[in-house]
Design a protein that fits this description.
elongated, 43% helix, two-stranded parallel ribbon, single chain, 7 strands, 167 residues, 5-stranded mixed beta sheet, alpha/beta
């Protein structure tokens, strides 16, 4: 079963943080925007009311995020932070050597990394994620890229993602 069918893997911390975000968006944040729309509507002519159109656009974006979070939380597979045992699995920051270059990324879901926009993320269901899952530090594997090319990959390091270390 793929990650899309069984849901994205999240740590309990990430799941709890996303639940809190959803509650904030569905409650106070949505109410605030709806009030702004109502106040702008009361001003009259909606065709040229920039405040009304901006608030409507913001509400649309908010509803999209609410829908995204609702689906993610409903289908998420919640797991403990992985052990620091040198085995590649979701929730690990992995450094690999590929094509003579080192590349570091989080194996899992973008939401685990919260605000760390500098950390690249690969799904455990991506071709590279599938190829390295279960591998150990020092192990060499062959990764078949989407273009069909076989690329040797060496697991250089892996450790559990720690949001405190990332900031």
């Amino acid at each position: 079963m793929s990650e899309n069918q069984q849901g994205a893997w999240l740590t309990q911390d990430a799941f709890d943080r996303l639940e809190a975000e959803l509650a904030e968006l569905e409650g106070p944040r949505r109410s605030e925007i709806v009030e702004r729309i109502s106040a702008a509507r009361d001003e009259g002519d909606l065709k040229e009311n920039g405040g009304y159109h901006a608030a409507r656009e913001e509400l649309g974006k908010l509803e999209g995020r609410i829908e995204e979070l609702t689906h993610l939380l409903k289908t998420a597979v919640v797991g403990e932070t992985p052990k620091d045992d040198g085995v590649v699995e979701p929730g690990m920051v992995v450094t690999v050597e590929m094509d003579g270059k080192e590349r570091t990324f989080l194996l899992g879901n973008r939401e685990i990394a919260d605000d760390d926009e500098t950390l690249e993320v690969f799904s455990s269901e991506s071709p590279l994620g599938q190829a390295i899952s279960g591998s150990s530090v020092g192990q060499k594997i062959d990764y078949t890229a989407p273009n069909g090319k076989s690329i040797p990959v060496t697991i250089v390091r892996c450790s559990p993602y720690d949001p405190k270390r990332a900031k």
